[in-house]
Amino acid sequence: MLLATPTFGRFCFRSELFKKILPLLICVLTPLAIAQRVCETPDSLFVDSSVQRSLNLYIYVPFSTSSYTIQIYDQNDDEGTAAQPSSFVLYYPDGSVAQTLDNPLPADWSTYQINSEGHPGIWRLSISGPKPSLQGEKAPCNYFLVRTIGDVDLYLKPEPRARLWFSPSHFGKAVIHNLYIQVPLLKRFRINMLRPTDANIVKFQLEAPKGVKFSEKWGGLPRGNPEFVEIKGNNLKGIWVLRINEVKANYAIGMEQELRIFFNDSPLMRTEDVLIKTVADDGRTPLPARIDITSPLTKLESYVVYTDSNGSTYLSLLPEGIYTITVSRGLEYEPYTFLTTSQEKSIVAPLRRILNRKKGWYCGDTHMHTIYSDGNDTPYQMVEAGKGEGLDWIVLTDHGSGENIPYVLTAHKEAMPFSEPGKFVIIPGEEFTVSRYHANIINGTVKAPSTSTLSQVVQRVRSTYTLNKPITIKLNHPYWGGTPEAPEVARETPLLPMMELWNDDPPNEPRSAYLLWELLNSGQKIFADTATDTHNRKTSKVGARRTYVYIGDAPLTANNVTLALMQGHSFISRGALVFFQVEGKIPGEEVAMSPNGNFRINIEVESIFPLDRVELVSNGKVLHTLPVNGSKRLSINLLLPLPEGWVIAQAVEKDTVFPLAMTNPIFIKKQ
């Protein structure tokens, strides 16, 4: 790409002398212009105060490049209505500020010379939108172009959810956008998109690298809603061209694998594919796992992948980098960290189990979101994360309410083919979302008006239940600030079967347990679960808080997991396992009072953190404390009196009341 005239034809000839020397200048300067490498964004990107408040562009600077130029066209556009203008800040690869680009020129290019010597790697240009004026005028929007000149690459790295927005031309350029996607060694990738309902505009055309064979599948919802195109093939490596024609309205894109999108068809950046296999510590048994990748050159790029069911995937690494690789598999395995380079073409990473659950117990996450509501990741990615984080089951719970929930059902449709009864189970669900409360429906959905009270939705769920299709419901995050009436809603719903703990605003997290205990003390039979409510699998790990259910020798199915949740045969954890029995009964079961009031109690605890104590809580009060004194293990049999009511066990770290794990209640009943 040649260096274009920077003022879009606004330059005017003001002297006869200039007209005479112009041909000579062209002869002298043309070779210089040809020598300049230019990357330029399409017309046009924007930031505003609503849909796209911020935007990150990335610049790859090779070791051989000591300086380059950034130009921004009309970076002060449409800011007359802004209380605070947009900001353009350039960051070094280590995350420190390199330069604030704060010299905007109206209707022209602003030029910034950048000294990059000693700072090779990936730089970031972070752009924050203008803030609206205090007078309530129309929300300001800043449209702009960005150009780099020199031996660097300019590119985007969209997240999976389609929220990277482009607009129609604001500077008189073509209504076609050419984007160049760098695809590493993959067998599938997926582009997510949001386009206008008019089928005659914003048309997508994907061109494969020469010689690459592939199949193409379109899916999602109708235009105007989340759509996708999925590409499959034996080896899709290369530069793919995404042409968006007839750009006459705004559109947004996302990349499931967060692939790099360049603004030049011949990127300088080269990557190497490194095969990694994650296995158990026997060195042979494959384990799906999470892999976090970083290096001094790529610190500003978030990079997380998961190995597949065979414990394999490819890492895409820069040839020059030294990478820190962390392999993990949720709470029950010890993370494994090591250094590598792209010269290692094949790596085997062993994972050691550090928590040992008992037979018949299975763990999962009952609350997560995908691109079909306000989540960052696709349904497939949430399944991939669930397996890689060492879970046995997950519940997909995109937001919905009322009888028309196409987004929720589309997420189920995409995910359910990846369910493997007996190995890994996907449970359909819905977060019934209204102003007074949020409630997760587990193992299905219900058709209830969005004006329904929680009692009415609970009744609808109960009427939907069958032996062949058990279904249940829980109140979510009762002390989250977005639903301040939720605690009162819980108190006015006497048949509420479950409540989510530990997912409130941080200062309020212990209060959800106290609310549960209050309801138990009122005679209500209600059980706890916990979940991550993750909206982004990179920053909020699936299963970081998890619920363990006991189904014994029964097969691992969605129905059996749902029944165990309903019956309270479970405990909740964020770092420990607690196996608790009274007279051989497990949580959720009843024990008859003995004549002398003493009960045989068994407690076994394993933790990834040093423990301070294990507590027995009866009817809302700590009845007995077992000191652990910094150990990570406890196994004890006790003979203790217990009053009528209920009792739980919880494992607690030092100097905190917030447990690492807590069981559901065992009920003590008179004979």
Characterization of this structure:
This protein is mostly beta strands. The chain folds into four domains: 223 residues, Jelly Rolls; 81 residues, Carboxypeptidase-like, regulatory domain (Immunoglobulin-like, Sandwich), CATH 2.60.40.1120; 217 residues, Metal-dependent hydrolases (TIM Barrel); 97 residues, Macroglobulin (MG2) domain (Immunoglobulin-like, Sandwich). The protein has seven helices and 48 strands. The strands form eight sheets. It has a 16-stranded mixed β-sheet that branches. A nine-stranded antiparallel β-sheet has the order 7-6-9-3-12-21-14-19-16, with no helix packed on it. Strands 1, 2, 4, 8 and 11 form a five-stranded antiparallel β-sheet that branches. The longest helix has 20 residues. The protein is globular, with a radius of gyration of 29 Å. The N terminus is likely disordered.
Short summary of the structure?
The protein has 4 domains: 40-262, Jelly Rolls; 273-353, Immunoglobulin-like; 358-574, TIM Barrel; 575-671, Macroglobulin (MG2) domain (Immunoglobulin-like, Sandwich).
